[in-house]
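TA notes, week 10

Several of you asked for a full example with nothing omitted. So below is the full record: structure tokens for the whole chain, then the designed sequence directly under it. When grading your own attempts, check the secondary structure regions first.
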């Protein structure tokens, strides 16, 4: 049997085994990354204070933008490289690698520089108060200076996973998070550098991960690696990367807009502590969302390779199994947060008012959470087969088409609870939209295959 690092097994090995082989490392990596965010918040909450939690929550929209401009490149690069390998085009996959790296660096300098120059006005617009602005500013100044490191690590790590090295990609996340867990408390509690120390620990740990992944692609024994002239940008590859990456980019930009509206609404109806409560809820729910995203990262090379190789039955098997696992993951999050919301909220802070506010909001927010797993998997499926427009639509439907109107209407009727109610309503509607889109696609493909079969019989 082919070795694990040989991507050709994607077209021959059993789907269940492949999904375990590719998804488990990605899930572990994404879980570790999410736990790193949670642990970071715990260090900040207990080492700096409850108001620092609120200040950190103010940065979420800007962090979404940081991620958006990164996945614009990394998601597209990973998808296209796996499709090229499915088409037996090793040179094409190598060219995609080089273009991904260069575009990540260019994006990081442009976006990071502009955001750094206008940081205070941006944070004010995002809902910062005089009490939370200093914390948000101290954190984001360091993060923005480190964007070239962050983008290089994430961009190349996604390509490494897509080109046959899921375990190595998982190790990148593990190395980064373990380093951060060690460094962050030293910077926060020993050196008393506060929330800025947490940000410095983040960037430093990502630098360690970046060195690891760059070294992988410098090694000529790697299936896809840097070659002479890898830095040359090619117009056709750039267009393909942006086309595929536009879906997760749009999703993160929309998330940024939504969180801005949420933060300003929370400030109006609940004050700084309500923003902190949302920050706690966001960290908890993102843990399960990130696990599902890890699942879709493992699915992506399997679906991309087999779609490129015209093995549609294997694509369908992967999708069905992915939806089932995705729903199980988010359902587990629903049960835990419904049963012990105060316990999980108390992990982040000792402030009783903040704990109670987060727990009551959490129980409302997750009412439709089991369906979120299926919606994410279906949206990722369309991205993996290169159907960028459908993927973009599904990515936008939950937040822009459904959540935004709810956020504009419900708080005026129900106050703070209206903000929390907006989330399960939009989750349910987005799930229905994703299922309908998938049914339309399956019907179209079935009809095309039937027509093709009839033609061949003639």
């Amino acid at each position: 049997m082919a070795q694990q690092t040989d991507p050709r097994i994607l077209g021959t090995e059993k789907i269940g085994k492949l999904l375990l082989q590719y998804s488990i490392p990605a899930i572990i990596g994404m879980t570790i990354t999410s736990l790193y965010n949670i642990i970071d918040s715990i260090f900040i909450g207990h080492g700096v204070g409850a108001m620092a939690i609120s200040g950190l929550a103010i940065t979420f929209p800007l962090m979404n933008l940081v991620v958006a401009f990164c996945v614009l490149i990394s998601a597209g690069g990973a998808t296209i490289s796996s499709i090229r390998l499915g088409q037996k085009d090793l040179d094409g996959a190598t060219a995609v690698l080089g273009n991904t790296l260069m575009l990540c660096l260019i994006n990081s300098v442009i976006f990071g520089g502009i955001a750094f120059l206008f940081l205070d006005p941006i944070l004010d617009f995002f809902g910062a108060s005089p009490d939370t602005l200093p914390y948000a500013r101290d954190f984001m100044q360091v993060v923005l200076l480190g964007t070239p490191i962050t983008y290089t690590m994430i961009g190349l790590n996604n390509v490494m996973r897509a080109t046959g090295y899921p375990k190595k990609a998982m190790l990148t996340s593990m190395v980064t998070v373990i380093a951060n867990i060690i460094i962050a408390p030293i910077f926060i509690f020993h050196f008393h550098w506060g929330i800025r120390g947490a940000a410095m620990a983040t960037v430093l740990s990502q630098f360690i991960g970046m060195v690891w992944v760059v070294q992988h692609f410098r090694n000529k024994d790697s299936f896809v690696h840097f070659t002479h002239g890898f830095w040359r940008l090619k117009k056709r590859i750039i267009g393909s990367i942006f086309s595929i990456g536009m879906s997760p980019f749009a999703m993160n930009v929309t998330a940024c807009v939504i969180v801005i509206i949420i933060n300003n609404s929370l400030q109006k109806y609940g004050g700084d502590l309500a923003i902190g409560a949302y920050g706690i809820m966001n960290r908890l729910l993102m843990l399960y969302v990130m696990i599902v995203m890890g699942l879709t990262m493992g699915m992506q090379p399997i679906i991309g390779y087999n779609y490129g190789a015209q093995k549609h039955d294997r694509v369908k098997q992967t999708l069905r199994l992915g939806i089932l696992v995705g729903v199980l993951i988010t359902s587990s999050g629903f049960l835990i947060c419904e049963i012990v919301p105060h316990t999980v909220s108390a992990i982040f802070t000792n402030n009783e008012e903040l704990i109670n506010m987060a727990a009551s909001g959490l129980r409302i927010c997750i009412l439709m959470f089991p369906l979120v797993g299926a919606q994410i998997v279906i949206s990722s499926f369309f991205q993996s087969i290169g159907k960028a427009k459908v993927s973009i639509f599904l990515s936008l439907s939950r937040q822009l088409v459904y959540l935004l109107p709810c956020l504009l209407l419900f708080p005026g009727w129900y106050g703070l609870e209206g903000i929390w109610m907006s989330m399960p309503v939009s989750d349910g509607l987005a799930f229905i939209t994703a299922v309908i889109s998938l049914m339309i696609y399956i019907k179209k493909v079935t009809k095309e295959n039937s027509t093709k079969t009839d033609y061949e019989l003639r």
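The radius of gyration is 22 Å. Use that as a sanity check on your answer.
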